[in-house]
Amino acid sequence: MPKAITRAQKGATPVTVAVTTVAKPRTVSTLIALQILPRGEKFERNLREAAIKAGFVRLPRDLGIGQMSKDTEAVISTIQVYGRQEVAGEVTHIECRIDPEHCATQWRAGENFLATSKRYAEVMDGVLCDANGAAIDELAMAALAGQIDAIIDLRMEKQRPGPVKLGDGSTRLNGPLSYQHIVHRRSPGSRKLLGVEQHSFVAEPMSYQHGRVQGLRMLRELMDFYRAHKVSRPGFNQIIASALGVPCPRGSYYEDMRDNVVVGFLDGLEELVMHASRNTDPKWIDCLVALAEGGAA
């Protein structure tokens, strides 16, 4: 029986979780690897079925089992099982891995990783341990989750576009698309907010042919956004209203009004555009852009 398993069974004093640093070409990855050790000689349950039951998911593109961003489907964490042991039915340990410096970002990713790893250990009738094989207690789990989330939160903060100071004392906050931004109006030298302006379809006057090219490029960017995100939204209704130069319809739960019909129409139209964006070959819109560019030449 492995020594690490015996230590876990006897309830050795839990220690701070070890962080394993793995060198990669041209970069250094801070990889946190937790072990799940069996209480007996080996695991008896189906590893993959137990992982799904615990809350892990099958990753896209045959990347195995782990956790991924609900928005982008990029990988957050993975499960490592040694293939030869699994084929032989002699698995003696499982690794749950996360790299907070390079994994996909998501709120409370560290907390979810630790909670799911703990459930996985329970389903497998195993013990959750650090990289050295020492059992982890609740305090160590909370500390590690906080450490992971602090790193990921800092990365998310850096990814958010910062405000751009304008000459009149106002600030501009860029949106998810290149032609979107919000302006906070202030007098020079004053912090008092005078007003907020939302610009969802910023486009300069152009000739017919050049304007058509630019419009198709803006549509391509919108399609790319929907293809890359499953949860985030760019404000479709505001884009359409701003493109047409009309106020964005809001609708009301308490009043009969035409805007309620318009909102329903636009919501359905957005679903249609999202579906088309995710299931249409990008070369299709590229061809439209190329044809428009040929006409503008």
In short, what is this structure?
This protein has 297 residues and is α+β, with helices and mostly antiparallel strands. The chain has three domains: 3-159, Cell Division Protein Zipa, Chain: A, CATH 3.30.1400; 164-199, no CATH class; 208-296, no CATH class.
Describe the structure.
With 297 residues, the chain is α+β, with helices and mostly antiparallel strands. It has 3 domains: 3-159, Cell Division Protein Zipa, Chain: A; 164-199, no CATH class; 208-296, no CATH class. The chain is 42% helix and 19% strand. The chain has 9 helices and 11 strands. The chain has helices spanning 3-9, 47-54, 83-88, 109-123, 138-159, 208-228, 236-244, 258-279, 282-296; strands at 20-24, 27-38, 57-58, 65-68, 75-80, 94-98, 126-129, 164-165, 171-174, 181-186, 193-199. Strands 1, 2, 3, 4, 5, 6 and 7 form a 7-stranded antiparallel beta sheet that branches. Strand 4 and strand 5 form a beta hairpin. Helix 4 runs antiparallel to helix 5 (138-159), helix 6 packs across helix 8 (258-279) and helix 6 (208-228) packs antiparallel against helix 9. The longest helix has 22 residues, at 138-159. It is elongated, with a radius of gyration of 26 Å.
